[in-house]
Specification:
Elements (H helix, E strand, L loop, with lengths): L1 H15 L27 H4 L19 H5 L31 E3 L6 H4 L2 H8 L5 H5 E2 L2 E2 L4 H8 L22 E3 L49 H8 L47 H4 L1 H6 L1 H5 L12 H6 L11 H12 L1 H5 L4 H8 L16 H7 L1 H5 L6 H4 L15
Antiparallel strand pairs: 1-4, 2-3
C-alpha cells in the first residue's frame, strides 16, 4: 500500500513539472580551423588584404609557407578553407568566410558609445556617424567590414587618437570567445531588417526605436536585443503595420505554430490596453492564488507593483479597492464581513484604521441629542453593536442607567 502511494505521488509530480531543457555543452573549436596562435609570428597584413579572403589569389600568400602541401595530393590543410577534400577543385566548395560558428577568434573591440558620441566624432573626423554609415552598403543592410572602418581609420585620414587599419591589435584581441550576437535571433524566429527600415506609410523607422540602449553600449555584451514590447507599438498600429502582421499572429515572427491553448500570444506581445486571456469577470475575485504564485507576472502590467510576492497583495490593494467595497460597504456591509473574517481586513488595513473611523459618531446616532431617546430599541436588538465602541460599564458610568439593563432615570 505504501509503495502504491509513492507511485501516485511520482506520477503527479512528473505530470505537473515544467519541461526543462538541458543546455548542450559548447562544442570545441574545429580542428580544421586556422590557428592564429600558430601564425602569431607573421604580420596580419601578410595574409589579410583589404576586402579579400586569404588564399583567394591562387592560394597566395598561403603557398609561401605551405607550398609542399599544395603540390601534394589533397590533405588535411585543404579542410581549413574547403567544405570537403576532393581531387577536383570544382567539387571543393569553399567554407563561408568569415566563419560564423559558435566561436569567434580574434574578436574585435568596438564601442557604440564612442562612435555615437556626435561631438567627439565630429571633432575627430568632421562629420556625425549614424547607424546607416556603418550598417548600410549599396542601399542594403550589411555587417560592417574593414572597408567600412577604413573610411575613418585609414592612415591617410590621420585620425587623432584612433587606431589605423594597419594596427590590427588596436581593434582585435588575440583570443577566442563565444559568439553571442548570432544567438539573438534563434530557433524558428525570422526577422528581416530591410522590411523594418520604413513602415507601411513610408515613414523611416529609426534604429533607436528598437535598439534603445545602443548609444550607451560599450561593447557587444551591452548591445542587447530589442525588447518584445518595442515591437508591439508598431505591429498593433493599423497606420504603420498591416493587420496580417499583428503580434497576435504567431507567423509574423515564427516559422511554425503549434495549435494549442499555450500557443496564445503572451502578455508582452499585446498592447497595454488589452487584458490577458485569463482576466475574465471572475478573475478579479479569484486572482489571489495567481498573484501569490507569480507576482512578477502581475508587475509586468500593473505599474504600482514591484513583483515581490511578499508584498504583492498590499502593493495592489493600497490603490485598488476589492470588488465588494461598493457604495454601501461602509454603512451596511463591512461590519458583518469584519466580524466573520477580520484577517481579511488586516491584509490592507492596520488596527489604527478601524479605530480612527469608529471614533467618529456613527450616522445611526443621528444628530447630537436625538439618539438618547431612540437608542433603546437598537440596543435591545443588538447590544453587541454598542460594545464596538463603548465599554461594558458605559451605560452605568454615563449616569443614564443606575443599574445595567434598567430604565433611565426619570422614566418608569
Amino acid at each position: 500500500m505504501g509503495g502504491a502511494r509513492v507511485l501516485v505521488v511520482a506520477i503527479v509530480v512528473c505530470g505537473c513539472a515544467q519541461p526543462h531543457a538541458v543546455d548542450a555543452p559548447v562544442p570545441p573549436i574545429e580542428a580544421s580551423r586556422l590557428s592564429h596562435a600558430q601564425h602569431a609570428q607573421i604580420a596580419c597584413a601578410a595574409c589579410h588584404t583589404m576586402g579579400e579572403r586569404p588564399g583567394s589569389r591562387e592560394h597566395a600568400p598561403c603557398d609561401t609557407c605551405h607550398r609542399q602541401a599544395f603540390v601534394s595530393p589533397p590533405g588535411p590543410l585543404c579542410e581549413v578553407c574547403h567544405v570537403e577534400v576532393t581531387t577536383s577543385p570544382l567539387d571543393a566548395p569553399l567554407k563561408k568566410y568569415p566563419v560564423e560558428d559558435l566561436w569567434q577568434t580574434e574578436p574585435s573591440l568596438f564601442s557604440h558609445r564612442v562612435h555615437l558620441d556626435r561631438g567627439r566624432i565630429e571633432q575627430r573626423v568632421g562629420f556625425h556617424v549614424a547607424c546607416a554609415d556603418c550598417h548600410v552598403q549599396n542601399g542594403k543592410l550589411a555587417r560592417p567590414d574593414h572597408a567600412t572602418c577604413a573610411r575613418c581609420h585609414a592612415r591617410e585620414v590621420g585620425l587623432d587618437g584612433g587606431p589605423t587599419m594597419e594596427a590590427c591589435t588596436g581593434c582585435h584581441q588575440r583570443t577566442a570567445q563565444l559568439r553571442t550576437r548570432a544567438r539573438l535571433i534563434k530557433g524558428d524566429l525570422h526577422f528581416d531588417h530591410d522590411h523594418h527600415r520604413t513602415d507601411r506609410r513610408g515613414t523611416p523607422i529609426r534604429c533607436e526605436a528598437c535598439h534603445e540602449r545602443t548609444a550607451q553600449a560599450e561593447g557587444y555584451a551591452d548591445h542587447v536585443a530589442p525588447r518584445v514590447e518595442s515591437c508591439v507599438g508598431c505591429h498593433d498600429d493599423t497606420d504603420r503595420t498591416p493587420a496580417a502582421m499583428r503580434m497576435r499572429v504567431c507567423e509574423t515572427c515564427h516559422a511554425s505554430r503549434i495549435e494549442k491553448v499555450t500557443s496564445l500570444a503572451p502578455r508582452n506581445h499585446l498592447p497595454a490596453t488589452e487584458k490577458p486571456i485569463d482576466h475574465t469577470i471572475a478573475f478579479r475575485r479569484d486572482h489571489a492564488e495567481a498573484a501569490e504564485r507569480d507576482a512578477a507576472r502581475c508587475a509586468s502590467c500593473h505599474a504600482m507593483m514591484s513583483g515581490n510576492p511578499r508584498d504583492a497583495c498590499d502593493e495592489c490593494h493600497q490603490s485598488m479597492k476589492p470588488a465588494d467595497h461598493r457604495l454601501t460597504w461602509r454603512e451596511l456591509d463591512h461590519g458583518t464581513e469584519a466580524a466573520a473574517d477580520r484577517s481579511r481586513c488586516a491584509r490592507c488595513h492596520v488596527i489604527e484604521f478601524c479605530t480612527a473611523c469608529h471614533m467618529q459618531r456613527p450616522r445611526s446616532h443621528g444628530y447630537i441629542g436625538t439618539f438618547t431617546a431612540d437608542h433603546g430599541p437598537l440596543a435591545r436588538i443588538n447590544v453587541r453593536s454598542c460594545l464596538t465602541c463603548h465599554q461594558e460599564d458605559f451605560c452605568t458610568a454615563a449616569g443614564c442607567h443606575t443599574v445595567a439593563g434598567s430604565s433611565p432615570r426619570g422614566r418608569p
